[in-house]
Amino acid sequence: MTFRTLHLNAFLMGVGHHEAAWRHPLTEPARLTDVRHYQQLARIAERGKLDSVFLADGLALHGDVRHNALGGLEPLTLLSALAAVTDHIGLIATVSTTYNEPFHVARKFASLDHISGGRAGWNIVTSAGEAEARNFGVERPAHADRYARATEFLEVVTELWDSWEDDAVVGDRRAGLYADTSKIHTLDHDGAHFRVRGPLNSSRPPQGHPLLVQAGSSEDGKEFAARHAEAVFTAQQTLAEGQEFYADLKGRLARYGRRPDQLLVLPGISPIIGSTEREALRLEKELEDLIIPAYGLAQLSTMVGIELTHDELDRPLPDISVETEGAQSRRKLVVDLARRENLTVRQLLGRLAGGRGHRVVAGTPERIADEIQVWFENGAADGFNIMPPVLPGGLADFVDHVVPELQIRGLFRTEYEGRTLRGNYGLARPASRHARIGDERLDPVVVS
Amino acid sequence: MTFRTLHLNAFLMGVGHHEAAWRHPLTEPARLTDVRHYQQLARIAERGKLDSVFLADGLALHGDVRHNALGGLEPLTLLSALAAVTDHIGLIATVSTTYNEPFHVARKFASLDHISGGRAGWNIVTSAGEAEARNFGVERPAHADRYARATEFLEVVTELWDSWEDDAVVGDRRAGLYADTSKIHTLDHDGAHFRVRGPLNSSRPPQGHPLLVQAGSSEDGKEFAARHAEAVFTAQQTLAEGQEFYADLKGRLARYGRRPDQLLVLPGISPIIGSTEREALRLEKELEDLIIPAYGLAQLSTMVGIELTHDELDRPLPDISVETEGAQSRRKLVVDLARRENLTVRQLLGRLAGGRGHRVVAGTPERIADEIQVWFENGAADGFNIMPPVLPGGLADFVDHVVPELQIRGLFRTEYEGRTLRGNYGLARPASRHARIGDERLDPVVVS
């Protein structure tokens, strides 16, 4: 067995993942739209040798902005500004396949990949929400339709990335030959959702294809991930659930001719860190005391699909069907959590406030490292999606105290191995579909 | 009459505006996709106290990539990376209204405006080309349809920018009130082209509205500019033509209730600079000698709408109708130029190679400054769109030699006056359509 190294992504969200983060004295909510805040976060993550930073996204104002610091910056424009002040860290942006055109998306990620020297990644989402549909003048598409569109979208995007072969640009000034047009290909794609001639108006991205990331945990989502994704963000509450998801997803790869190591599973974890257990629990309590129940109730009502009121705060969660398919994998997780731990609605709100269903672990750096190690070494994770409760402090604490512990244990890098996001994730650079087998110009890493 | 200051925009295009720039020893064509090249250009422009940098764009691979360095970076991602390394310079990106959705465009420019601290500008184009239509699976829309869509597009975008009032974010941690939702507005726009609910998921941009720029010179284009644009890029060959265009456009403003100083007219100029006239002419000749006639012939054929061959190189331009309306304003300019100066096709190619129909002036810094001054002081320009033949050298020469001459003459700033792009262009910050008259929070600059 080859040496396995842990992978760590910093999930950047405003001034913290805890829904009350903006009320805590450790944060400055005015920094929500301040690029210097995010630049500081990216630099902290890079100081910790993390693989990547990641920005979630939605195409509508989600949640109750009366009670939370919502409405930040657009991920792709923001990541370019982070690329400019960092050298190694990967840059992953969420972009929807439902409300975009493949030509634009291929081009923007190609551009970000060029700008960052091969550090771009795309978190592919299909935008389930009603509010998003209404900003684009359409009815909310059905789950299966969204995934059918996403599949064709991805075909077109990867074909656009391949439309210039790696050696298409010749740059022979004397002969006056800039590009060898026999190595620049039209697509003439004509499918159910898109007709795209191509080629892209940008040379092939440094990574060949920017990294493909996905986060859906529905049946369609897992199948899409097994076919296309190279990293998967997921919410798993217990080790057993994490192991089940990991085995399930890795087990699906073979049917697409892929090896298990070609997809990394990265569960979310919100680490509430203290130098003592008591200190960590105190921070957790401070944040819990700042929760506004009306905010959490509205979020939870949307998640479980029934309207919950203040009157129900101190009762158990009502019976809720979890047999639904589709966008409802988060519903099952929440209902299972409430039942397993016999939580009242108020207690459940406290558990969800930290990570919206992602696992929250409060403790010393050693304790956090233990949790990470157990999951990593027991078939539940290839790494983690780190969701600090408050930012920037929570990320700095992770980098300065948990990362060294992981390094001492030999689990995590002390220097970047690669020059690209793929390089650091240990993933190969895809060959162009137009590259000729045995072509002496073929990049060696492609065939490794 | 109040003091009028000249405005200067640096039009950044690959390694230079001359079509043979990539073959000249002064350039490095490999820098076409290197963000550091553009960062260097933005810093040079800022060193010269220029108002802004500007990136053109198309949504297809235009022109013959065998013979020119085409296929660079996407403007919005690139400008964010430039924002990160500059403090004052405005950042203007071209984005099409024909192949985009207003929600995305409003959001990306809001984001760039936040990231840059109020330096974003949008060059609004309607994408005339056949090749672009084919990358989005549609038939090329008619000229009038494109402008009708653009008008509605702009209504929606500006309404989205206004959807959060300037003081919507309260940020009261103690009370748990982040935003006053009575100051965040849905649009419920329902028009011929778009249905958009809103609000935007981003607070109001620092400039209120990022600067609106336009470049169409057709009848529809000029009318659109008169109604919406705050700066107009235009190609005018002679002082008389420049004066006519200037008077025409400024004369259209009153019918939209606008004053002449609310729109700046910025003709393009490609300055070929030498410390002596002889040196400038030598550089011009060097570039001309590197022209590949096949490239220019293909470009010119597209421009004039007939297929020109090598056999016609040393003959006058054939008779061509210039009575067409619509996207053909560039055709008229080219045909007029050939007739006025009695040029052969080969000579015309030489004249177009420098600036694709924009004026080319070769000479000493004083000579370039003279040209700028004459147009500025005689009703033909409020400033200029500077199109250096080679980059970065041509921009550095302009900044280091022409700008000081303009400063000595009292025509150009020696320090930035404003903190925003609007501030430097001398344009007011628009009040939100939801702002209440007499509201004590109303920004004073709005009512100036």
Descriptive report:
Chain A is of the alpha/beta class and 448 residues long. Chain A has a single domain, classed as Luciferase-like domain (TIM Barrel, Alpha-Beta Barrel). Chain A is 36% helix and 14% strand. Chain A has an eight-stranded parallel β-barrel, surrounded by eight helices. A two-stranded antiparallel sheet of chain A has the order 5-6. Chain A has a two-stranded antiparallel sheet with strand order 7-8. In chain A, helix 6 links the parallel strand 9 and strand 10. The two termini of chain A are 17 Å apart. At the A-B interface, helix 2, helix 3, strand 6 and strand 8 of A face helix 2, helix 3, helix 4, strand 6 and strand 8 of B.
Helix-strand blueprint:
The structure is a homodimer of 448-residue chains.
Chain A: E1 7-12, H1 35-47, E2 52-55, H2 75-83, E3 90-96, H3 102-115, E4 120-125, H4 130-134, H5 143-161, E5 169-172, E6 177-179, E7 189-190, E8 195-196, E9 211-214, H6 219-228, E10 231-234, H7 239-251, E11 264-273, H8 277-289, H9 293-304, H10 329-340, H11 345-353, E12 359-363, H12 365-377, E13 383-386, H13 393-408, H14 421-425
Parallel strand pairs in A: 1-2, 1-13, 2-3, 3-4, 4-9, 9-10, 10-11, 11-12, 11-13
Antiparallel strand pairs in A: 5-6, 7-8
Helix pairs in contact in A: 2-3, 3-5, 5-6, 9-11, 12-13
